[in-house]
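Handout for the seminar on molecular recognition.
Each group receives one record of this type.
Step one: identify the two inputs.
Step two: read the structure output and locate the region that could contact SUD.
Step three: write two sentences on what you found, then compare them with the reference statements printed after the record.
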Amino acid sequence: MTLTLPSPAKLNLFLHINGRRADGYHELQTLFQFLDYGDDLSFELRGDGQMVLSPSIPGVPDEDNLIIRAARLLAEHSSHPVPGVNITLNKRLPMGGGLGGGSSNAATVLLALNHLWRLNLDTDTLARLGLQLGADVPVFVRGTAAWAEGVGEVLTPAQPPEDWFVVLKPGCDINTGKIFSQEGLTRDTPRIKIAPAFEGDASRYRNDCEDVVCRLYPEVRKSLDWLSQFGPARLTGTGACIFGRFPTESAARIIWESKPSGIKGFVAKGVNLSPLHKKLAELK
Ligand SMILES: C[C@@](CO)(OP(=O)(O)O)[C@H](O)COP(=O)(O)OP(=O)(O)OC[C@H]1O[C@@H](n2ccc(N)nc2=O)[C@H](O)[C@@H]1O
Ligand SMILES: Nc1ncnc2c1ncn2[C@@H]1O[C@H](COP(=O)(O)OP(=O)(O)O)[C@@H](O)[C@H]1O
């Protein structure tokens, strides 16, 4: 039997950096929303305890791939030997795009294998394991749009409007660690207080990485300037993707069709329940 599950993208509707901890990690305030667009992962049980990924991602050795790392981490936490799994990856999300593709893949693996291997680990345990793999994994494990604080792991469910987005991927890959180590990065935005449910307009707030990223990568600035003509546009995470918000699919598609030639991206709906959790609920 093959189980196929979505591994959606996220957007940071805004991202404030409030400080830097002694261990070098940054304290953030950010609003996460999922997109109804992403990778797919298919799972098939094996009998020999091996974790096998196909196809591999060029440039990412399997032992570094968050898919295999998540499967191995979960196996270590099982009280009984696990049967192993074949995982097939259908990658659509650009890497190093700020869309959280690797983190989302890890979360899909944790939830899928918890189900297939009948481990019965609860969500808190899976989120805690996920945090060992990356700061963004817990939000994908929990599956609800969220207001995040701490280094991104203190999550409060949120309900931002489910708008449509044009997402553009400028032709550069951005390393998260590189942006956080830039000298000119804004790190002192005062903490804001917002209603826990956050139903307001996130585009009032900025992404503190935007200035540094635009300075280092002029192609991001170009895409941002172009998309900003039509409404609020922002960088997601530490980039490179930028997004513009539209009230309807047709409004988003009109802008998408008029984009300068050569630029990649997609149109997708913002959703407050992860497509992964929607699909898992249908299986029950
Ligand atoms: C800032 C965000 C917003 O969503 O950026 P994106 O990666 O999505 O662009 C994420 O929280 C990133 O999460 P993730 O990509 O999982 O980061 P990690 O692998 O944990 O960290 C990569 C590196 O970024 C830096 N880092 C990351 C998160 C954080 N709060 N402070 C940091 O200083 C650290 O140098 C760390 O070594
Ligand atoms: N399954 C995976 N999918 C994508 N990237 C992965 C994966 N496993 C490891 N990585 C590494 O994580 C890096 C960040 O990828 P990704 O999560 O897609 O971007 P971002 O953190 O910018 O949203 C990649 O450049 C790659 O080296």
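Reference statements: The mean pLDDT is 95. The radius of gyration is 19 Å.
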